[in-house]
Amino acid sequence: MFHSLNRDIRNGVWHMKLLRNEIKFLKELGDRRFYGQIATRQLIELQPQVIWLYALISVNACALAFTHYSIAPVWLTIAVPGALLPICLIRGIHWWSLRPHEASDAEAVSYLRRTSLVTALLSIGFVSWGLALDTYGGPYERGHVAVFVAITVIACIFCLTHLPAAALIVTIIVMGSLIPYYLISGNDVFIAIAFNVLFVTIVMVRILLRNYADFVRLVKFQTETQRLIEENAALASTDSLTGLPNRRLFLKRLDSWVADQRTNGNEIALAIFDLDHFKPINDTYGHLIGDQVLIEIGRRLAELSDANTVFARLGGDEFGVVVRQLKNVSDARFLCDKISHELNKPVILERVQLVTGCSGGLAYFPEGGCSAHELFDRADYALYYSKENSRGAITTFSDEHENNIRGERAIEAALHDNDILNEMEIHYQPIFNTRLRSISSVEGLARWNSPSLGSIGPDRFIAAAERCGRIHTLTIGLLRKALDEARSLPEEIGLSFNLSAHDLISSATVISIVSAVRASKFAPNRLTLELTETALMRDFEAAHAAISTLRELGIKVALDDFGTGYSSLSYVHRLPLDIIKIDRSFILNIDSKLGSDIVTTVLNLCENLNLECVAEGVETDSQVNKLQLLGCHYVQGYLIGKPVPMQELLLRIQTKGKILYFQRTA
Ligand code: C2E
Ligand code: CA
Ligand code: CA
Fold first, then answer.
1. With a threshold of 0.70, does the pTM exceed it?
2. What is the domain extent for residue 294?
3. 384 and 463 belong to one structural domain
4. Ligand 3 center from residue 394 Cα (angstroms)
5. Whose CA is nearest to atom 17 of ligand 1?
6. CA–CA dist 446, 423 (Å, integer)
């Protein structure tokens, strides 16, 4: 039996060692969290049990003192319990007032150590007291002592399940004194009691150790699960490339800071940055280099962040920053300038040195909108404004922008009118062949005279229709109208029609275009569809497929506004095009050396690729002469003729013949 106890105690100590080693190992591994977590969980589980334990010891001790009051000396029945019970009371109150959930890891560990120490001292006190009382009284009183000691030790093991160190200390102290004491008593009954108690204790200790091992496993499992949940949450809110917070976390933080702002009144600023030259870098050097550039940009931004500043990659080459507790409005502007400065510094990679540059939009809360969502939209609008009007600059959202937004919203609302297509008409601008001295085709340009908003330019309402999802209706309706009106043109004059960037990537729109052309009485080989680079940049593969479908039908495809995008050249080679339209901005400067060089280059390109070339925005005779000299034979612009309704155009053709401009100058 003793052997078994020894083994179990050894086992217990071994278990304890093992556990301690395990904890030590985890600690050494840097997994301090588990170590702290287990101590905190021990504290939480122990709290109610320890309070009951002290209550139980106190009641048992009072009962023992009571049964021995008349037979034992007063110092034993009153003085000793009078010293031990207040300790139990104080410890009980202490445990009762404990807030284990709030204890730090280190605090939890120190509480547990202290508890083990107090338990050891109290065990020595009570067992010595019990054995001292055993020398007084008859068999009943001695039996009571045996019950007191045995029951109390079992209660200790039960209540201290989550602190096996303390439970084992109590067992060793109590059993280590009680068993030898009974064994040497020579009394058969006490010897039998000693064996009984010993056996029960061994079983109890085994259960205790097993339960504790299960408890450790459970906590470990929970800690691991929690770690995985947190790791997943962290991954879900981190941009995997740059390591910066992603859009999701950014918006979450913005939401919570905006909510805080309503109580603390501190100003918030939000800025969005978009890299100006990232796309060409990606296209020219490939995605690996593009990624490295983004990583470097992310690193630079991360260096600028602090507790009140969150940077995030919002997607693609767009980055956001939100700042709270602004002391001065100018602080945000200062930070934005710093960001801009950082993003304009060259990124030095192994073989290349690249400059991305950036445009930005900045908005303040509460001035710029009454919610996180609105603030974001305002900053986005300001960014869009920079991109459109002053690339490379940072625009601060202003009242003027607010009015613009209201105007755009009104346009979007009006576009939802069922009668919208009846409010629109198409004007036609001639494209002139200088060699044949005749109109080769006319470009249809939409006009909208809204009864409520007045005349609105196509640039504005096309963009609004794209935003509010009405572009499909507009494109198809206007195309049908243009095809219908173009039937009255002389057969040798073709029709050019503009597509929006959204049209080509929507297979539904492409199908509708094809059926509109088929349904019209207009020959597909007289139709040219003009598209801009933006359409190609959105989804090159879809655009490529759509262009091929249209060309199979005999429709010609023109690349509009050539040269205004960033990677025009890379697209031209890869697409089955028919015509390139040189943007007005190049024709405007054609008299300069640089302007004429650019036009010459484009013309050479067209010649090499066997494409026709149309010069847009021709306004002066000298521009026409220069273009002719350089070999560009298709011109379009106010000099040839402004866009006019079909009836007016037909009238001019009838009165002046097909030769408009040259007849005029001849
Ligand atoms: P775009 O396709 O580049 O059309 C040429 C624009 O330049 C037209 O402006 C035209 O009026 C103007 N323009 C022509 N010659 C000259 C000139 O000599 N000098 C100057 N200063 N301007 C000239 P508009 O009609 O305001 O159209 C603007 C843009 O709206 C068009 O640019 C086109 O991208 C878009 N658009 C027009 N109609 C439609 C349409 O039905 N569908 C789509 N998706 N877009 C359209
Ligand atoms: Ca056009
Ligand atoms: Ca154009």
1. no
2. 247-397
3. no
4. 28
5. 617
6. 11
